[in-house]
Amino acid sequence: MTTAGVRSAFQYGLAIFTLTALLGLANATQVFGALDRNTLLTHLHSGTLGWITMGVIGLTIWIFGGTGRLMAVRLSALSTAAYVLAFWSGNVYARATFGSTELLVILYWWWFAFASANREGFGRLDIPKLSVVFGLTTLVIGSSIGVLAQILLASTGAIPQTPDLVGAHASAQTGGYLVLVAAGFIEWQLTGGGKRSTLGLVQVGLLFIGGLLLSFSLLSAAQLGPQLSQALPGIATLFTLAGIVIIAFRFGRAALGVSWTSGGARHIAIAVGFLILAVILQAILVQQFIAAQGDVNKVSIGLLHALDHSYFVGLMTNVLFGAVLIFNMDRPRTWPWADNVIFWGLNLGAASFIAVLLTAGSGEGAKPFTNPVSFTAPIMGLAALLGIATLLMRLQSSPAAVTSAAPA
Ligand code: HEM
Ligand code: HEM
Hints:
By secondary structure, the chain is an all-alpha fold. It is 79% helix and 0% strand. It has 13 helices and no strands. α2 packs antiparallel against α3 (70-89). Bound molecules: protoporphyrin IX containing FE (2 copies). One protoporphyrin IX containing FE (HEM) binds next to α1, α2, α10 and α12.
């Protein structure tokens, strides 16, 4: 069956997302006390690799019309689960080993996208597919920096602060990879893709250069000298902001025109709003970082975590939930009532969680239920868990149920 790989990637992604959401709930309520660094990194990478990147793999197979690939998806999920558990174990050798196998997985899917694009011809490729190929290219670069950090940690006992490998890694992955693939998949789901325009090409170029430049400026701050290392992150952010303005212009109207009462398209549409929010928060964070003369300890933790969840939940979880709903349209809608609870719970939960992080600050380390994070983040977490259960059931059900209901 042609779409088996897509379905399977979504299923593995959703299953791993359960762990992310449960750890998020533990962090929000603090009922088990403050989570240690290993557990926080497990929350982070189960979300970004286990959920988001497995989902992106599914969408990549889908957009390029790939067939089969079931075994590749299974091996990718296995490697990803092993790497997430390695983070949890805190064992630096396991982290270096499975970080490296994860990089191979990422290289494989980058190659799949690149080869498929090449077959179609880069000169004819539409904007969504171009966005995905360039986004996955940044993922390869960001993940290579991550693996380098893992190997240095295992061999020398620490990740060097200069150059700022972790900052360069994180900014490539979020401000580069996620922005590009999200823009591509949103345009494809909202408009059907198929078009190529100069403005669209400029958009892809700005977003690609903006993400890489930000990462590069953190990596080479020491070599660039004080003036350039202060100016470059700001210039990079301007590139990304300009790309986002083009996005709002090119498909903002299509986003506003979706049905807000039912269906998957509203998840895709609201993701545009969170994309704009995330990039604005990123610009403010870069501003704080420049004002602090590159001292990451001086930036606001609440702002950083607000930015993280705008990208990971507001943008990517909406894109993926919406895409799975649309992918599954020919299947029975188990628990039809759940759709509205998931959409409003996830989005009102995420919006109030982000607002609280920005105004009251981070709740990490606070006593249980003493910080407003404890009351807002669980709305988002419980809606995510309901989404996982509902979508897994729908992905599992067979389309035959629909067909057999039709008159013979
Ligand atoms: C093969 C893939 C990846 C590898 C090898 C990797 C590796 C790492 C390492 C070694 C760290 C630092 C951990 C520490 O402080 O001890 C880290 C942090 C981080 N990673 Fe990844 N990672 C990968 C994928 C991703 C992806 C796909 C994303 C996002 C889409 C991501 C986002 C982040 C963020 C936001 C941080 C935290 C930076 C901070 O502490 O402020 N990573 N990663
Ligand atoms: C793709 C999904 C997600 C990713 C990648 C992600 C990532 C992160 C990151 C990077 C942090 C900062 C950890 C640190 O201090 O190093 C964090 C904190 C947190 N996450 Fe998530 N998260 C995701 C989903 C969720 C969900 C569904 C919940 C639901 C309850 C949640 C709740 C929290 C809470 C409460 C904090 C602490 C915020 C604070 O008080 O400062 N996260 N998450």
